[in-house]
Write a structure and sequence with these properties.
Length: 131
C-alpha cells in the first residue's frame, strides 16, 4: 500500500511590485473590516476594541458593515488613514486588515499592470494615472 505524498509546492512568481505602485488599492472608498481586523488594530495601538472601532472605522449605513476611515490624499482624492502619504506604504502593515492581506488574490495585480502600461505609453517611469 503506497502512502500518498504531498505535492511539492511550486513557487509562485509574483508579477507585480507594490513598492513601485502609488497605492491604488489603498484608495478604495470602501475597505471593509471585520471584528478580527478591529481587534488586531486595537492590539497594535494598545487600545480597547471600542476605541479602535470608533477611531479607525466608520459604519456604512446601507450595508451595515464597518469600513476603514479615509483622509485626504495628495495623489488621489482620499486614501486609507493608515497610508503613509510620502512613502505610499502601509503604516500598520503587520496589523493590516484581512482584505489587505489577501490582495491581490492572484499572481497579477490589475492596478500594477495598468500602471506599467500607462508609464510605457507616457514614456515616464514616474507617471501616475489618476483614472
Amino acid at each position: 500500500m503506497s502512502q500518498k505524498q504531498k505535492p511539492v509546492p511550486v513557487p509562485v512568481r509574483v508579477l507585480y511590485s507594490c513598492e513601485k505602485c502609488p497605492a491604488y488599492c489603498c484608495t478604495y472608498s470602501d475597505i471593509e473590516v471585520g471584528k478580527r481586523d478591529i481587534a488586531r488594530l486595537a492590539k497594535h495601538f494598545g487600545v480597547d476594541y471600542a476605541t479602535a472601532e470608533a477611531r479607525f472605522t466608520r459604519e456604512d449605513p446601507k450595508e451595515k458593515v464597518r469600513l476603514l476611515r479615509h483622509r485626504s490624499d495628495k495623489v488621489f482624492e482620499s486614501a486609507c488613514m493608515f497610508l503613509d502619504r510620502e512613502k505610499r506604504q502601509c503604516t500598520v502593515y503587520d496589523a493590516r486588515p484581512g482584505v489587505c492581506r489577501h490582495y491581490p488574490d492572484s499572481r497579477r495585480c490589475g492596478y500594477y499592470d495598468f500602471l506599467r502600461f500607462e508609464r510605457e505609453q507616457q514614456g515616464d517611469p514616474e507617471f501616475i494615472a489618476l483614472t
